[in-house]
Amino acid sequence: MASFKSSLSFILLIALLATSSLLVASAGNFNQDFQITWGDGRAKILNNGELLTLSLDKASGSGFQSKNEYLFGKIDMQLKLVPGNSAGTVTAYYLSSKGSTWDEIDFEFLGNLSGDPYILHTNVFSQGKGNREQQFYLWFDPTADFHTYSILWNPQRIVFSVDGTPIREFKNQESNGVPFPKNQPMRIYSSLWNADDWATRGGLIKTDWSIAPFTASYRNFNANNACVSSNGVSSCSSSSSPNSSSSASTSNAWLSEELDLTRQERLRWVQKNYMIYNYCTDTKRFPQGLPTECKS
Ligand SMILES: *[C@@H]1O[C@H](CO)[C@@H](O)[C@H](O)[C@H]1NC(C)=O
Ligand SMILES: *[C@@H]1O[C@H](CO)[C@@H](O)[C@H](O)[C@H]1NC(C)=O
């Protein structure tokens, strides 16, 4: 009996180890999921695909993109931004489709002098039209460690989150005539580049090339809950077909996820304390009236 018990606990231990290694394995691998697209050696995939770094010097920045295209998803990435004096640098991390009426969901991190706050700039384009900027300060130093930046994109809403805290929600308001990104698959893109003509205090503070190269790091990409789109076929339409396994149907809950009351309260907390620009309140910019989606 004793030996039966101990072998049972041994089996349980093995099962636990197997599950946890599965969880680790399900965090994305940069070699598998991404390709470096520019920068002539300035972008690097390290540690067997667990880490990616982008760098920028006076000659060039660098960038990468996802191999897959997605049509809806809940996508997480951990970023550690350029530390120290990062004034003039911009780290862009976004989803975008192609063509002249493209859709796009943007995170952009505008660097600053040492000790001065980064600006997290966000935008949503639908059918080629953006002009929907919201900007935030963060409640932590984004250069001291990795933090998780997430996009939930389903047919009803786009939610931008930082470490699980929602900072922005863009709802589907097609019923009010506002186009919503829902037909064009998007790829994930990221780049580190110089934008000292506008990024830091409107271009007042220039990049200090004497301290180049500047480096931003990425890890723990997760798109386990996302619909990969390939030649017009979505991975979700096959897994949500009748009689799909129960795990597939529960994992598709994100496709109709909304913000519960707790998260709505967190969103209001961020918007009240950390939002520094909101196009929806910029009446000077829109003398003809605020954009439709701002009115409700
Ligand atoms: C940089 O710091 C200044 C001073 O605190 C601040 O006004 C500005 O919003 C910060 N961020 C950027 C990107 O300019
Ligand atoms: C799904 O399962 C139900 C009940 O088990 C069965 O009656 C039905 O034919 C199945 N449908 C498909 C498409 O396999």
TrEMBL record:
* CDD domains to which the protein is assigned, alphabetical: GH16_XET (cd02176)
The EC number(s) attached to this protein equal: 2.4.1.207
Family matches, as InterPro entries: Beta-glucanase-like (IPR000757), Beta-glucanase/XTH (IPR044791), ConA-like_dom_sf (IPR013320), GH16_AS (IPR008263), XET_C (IPR010713), XTH (IPR016455)
Active-site residues per Swiss-Prot or TrEMBL entry: 104 (nucleophile), 108 (proton donor)
Annotated signal sequence is 1-27
- Keywords, sorted A to Z: Apoplast, Cell wall, Cell wall biogenesis/degradation, Disulfide bond, Glycoprotein, Glycosidase, Hydrolase, Secreted, Signal, Transferase
Tell where it localizes: Secreted, Cell wall; Secreted, Extracellular space, Apoplast
Q: How is it modified after translation?
A: Contains at least one intrachain disulfide bond essential for its enzymatic activity.
User: What Pfam families does the record point to?
Assistant: Glyco_hydro_16, XET_C
GO-annotated molecular function: hydrolase activity, hydrolyzing O-glycosyl compounds; xyloglucan:xyloglucosyl transferase activity
Q: What is this protein called?
A: Xyloglucan endotransglucosylase/hydrolase
What organism does the UniProt record list as the source? Prunus avium
